[in-house]
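[step 3/7] fold_predict: job queued, chain A
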Amino acid sequence: MLKIEHLKVGYGESMILRDVTLRVKPGQVVCLMGRNGVGKTTLMKSIMGLLRPKLGTIQCRDQAITTLSPDRRARMGIGYVPQGREIFSHLTVEENLLLGLEACTQKTQTIPESLFTMFPILKSMLKRRGGDLSGGQQQQLSIARALASTPKLLLLDEPMEGIQPSIVMEIEQVIAAIKQKREVAVLLVEQSLAFATLIADYYYVLDKGMIVAEGNSAELSEELVKQHLSV
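[step 4/7] structure written:
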């Protein structure tokens, strides 16, 4: 589904990612872990096309996408939920969801009912402006907007960060439901060891712009977390 080879990405002369190689198989949930500032968000933005690599390649569904624009990548089936949500606060919930449909290969103006099954609260808020929602509700909207286009690869950048516990549980349940169907591959940036071992099939640890550990999530140990993730 996603294949990254020897990726190097930087800002000006400052190199953030150094020789990153990573795989996400179809239907797999992969957790990307690491301390703050090690390049996790840079990697997600590079996959989505918001940053151009200095070196290396990115493939999605066996097609080279390294030089494609973000909108082309979205139409190829990549959904992206950035850190900080970034919904359109001046638009209604319904308008935000309709924008998510723009990446569908088959044009439609019908919001999938399945989104309201995942996030029931959004159906009662369709006419409310996105900026009037709580932080947790905005995160639900951001995930629903990304899922509206029925992506084959979903990028989630710390979706539980700063969210109230009740909504964290709902988001965890949605990710678990996605995993159970095995129709969408997920690359998830997450700091929680408990959640990573519960939901992910595989993990990568990023440190100083490089992959320093990887393996099956069942083998993710507290010792490794203390070595590479503890402040």
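[step 5/7] annotate
The first helix runs from residue 40 to 48.
Strands lie at 2-11, 14-24, 29-33, 55-60, 63-64, 78-81, 153-157, 185-189, 202-207, 210-216.
exit 0
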